[in-house]
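Homework help board

Subject: predicted structure for assignment chain

Our instructor gave us this sequence and asked us to write out the predicted structure in token form, then describe one feature. I got the tokens but I'm not sure how to describe them. Can anyone check?
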Amino acid sequence: STACTICPMGTYAKGNANTVCTHCPKGKYTEKAGSGGCGACAAGKYAGSAKSTGCIDCTAGTYAAKVLLDV
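My token output:
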């Protein structure tokens, strides 16, 4: 290969000399391609699956009080 490939949304590559993109874990997300890490959802929102590309509001009768640390 003659060029590096940008990691797609929902994945990240931290640091240099990566050979693969890593999926964001459940509860974390990336909003754009080429991320160096995954972000945490704000209180009242969640990322329901691995490879999330955004956060979803908690529905009536549910909550998410904690904000998780970034990867």
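Reply (TA_rk): Your tokens look well-formed. For the description, you could write something like this. The first strand starts at residue 11 and ends at 12. That's the kind of observation they're looking for.
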